[in-house]
Amino acid sequence: xxxxxxxxxxxxxxxxxxxxxxxxxxxxxxxxxxxxxxxxxxxxxxxxxxxxxxxxxxxxxxxxxxxxxxxxxxxxxxxxxxxxxxxxxxxxxxxxxxxxxxxxxxxxxxxxxxxxxxxxxxxxxxxxxxxxxxxxxxxxxxxxxxxxxxxxxxxxxxxxxxxxxxxxxxxxxxxxxxxxxxxxxxxxxxxxxxxxxxxxxxxxxxxxxxxxxxxxxxxxxxxxxxxxxxxxxxxxxxxxxxxxxxxxxxxxxxxxxxxxxxxxxxxxxxxxxxxxxxxxxxxxxxxxxxxxxxxxxxxxxxxxxxxxxxxxxxxxxxxxxxxxxxxxxxxxxxxxxxxxxxxxxxxxxxxxxxxxxxxxxxxxxxxxxxxxxxxxxxxxxxxxxxxxxxxxxxx
Length: 395
Prior knowledge:
Number of strands: 2
Helix content: 55-70%
Low-confidence stretches: none
Shape: elongated
Structural class: mainly alpha
Mean pLDDT: 86
Strand content: under 5%
Order of helices and strands: HHHHHHHHEHHHHHHHHHEH
Distance between the termini: 65 Å
C-alpha cells in the first residue's frame, strides 16, 4: 500500500506473490525471511502489471518507472512494518469514509476476516458488504487520502475514529447481534489485538493517550468474563449468576493496571470511565458485594461527557442495584419516554426485570415480550422465553 498508493493494486500484487510462493517454496524451501521475499516479489509483480497496462495509461508507465527505481532499497525491518500497519489503520478509519465503510475495511484489510464473515457479523448480504468495501477503497483513491499517521495536531480527530471502529468491532464480538452464540471470539480477539497495536505504536510511550489505554482495559475486563457468560449448553448466564472463578484473571490484572494508568491522567474520557466501571465489577466477589455507589458515581461522570440513551439506561440499572427496583424503574421509564430506545431490546428487558422484582407481573410480561420481538440472538431469545414462561406460571 505504501509503495503503490492503491489498496486494490496492493492486494492484487500480494495475491500474485502468495501464488508465486506456493509454486516456488516447495522446491526451494521457505526463505529465512519470508516477509521481505513476498514484498519484493509483489513489487516485481506490480511492475509487470503496470507495464502491461502502460500501453493504455501513461500514469501506469510513470508509476512502473518509480517502482523500478526503488528496487534496490533495503527490505523492510520489523519496526517499519509495524509503522506501516499503523498507517493502514488510520487509512481505513479516515473520517472522510462513512462509518460502515471504516468498520468493513478495517475488518477486511487489518483483521483479515473474509467478506462473508463480516457480512454475517453485521447482518447484511456479502454483496452489500462487498460494495461497502469497494466504495471505501474508491473514496481513498479519489480523495487521495494519505497513507500516513496523522500529524500531532490532527491526531485527536483521527484517533477518535480509530477507537470507535475498534470499539464497534469488540461490541459485535462481545454481544453478537444475531445467531446461535452470545459472543464471537474472533471479533473480540481482533479488537483486543488492534487495541494492543495502537498502544504499542503510540508516538510517545512515556506520555500515553489515556483513552487508548482505557479502551484496551475495557475490552480486556469485559472479555475476561466470556467463559462464564454462557452454560455448556450455550444458555445465557446473567452477571449475578456467573461463576466468577471462571473469569480470566490475567485479563483482569492487566485491565486493572491499565485503568489505573489511564485514570492518573486528567485527559481521560468515556472509554476510561467505562473501563473503571468494569474494574469495579471485576474486583467484586459477588453482585451483592459490588460497590454500586461507586458505579453510579462513575456513570454520573460518564453521562456528563457522553449523554447517550444507552449510558442513561445503564446508569438506571446501576441506580436500581443501589436504591432498589422502584427507583431503577422510574429512571428506566424516563429514558424510554424519550423514544430513542424504543427498538432497543435491552431497554425493555431491563424494564421487565424491574417490574418482575416489584411483583408487577403483567407489566413484566409485556416488556419481556417487547424485548423478545426485538432480539435475533438465540440465547437471548431462549432466556426471555424462559422468563415469560416463569411469569405465566406465577399468574
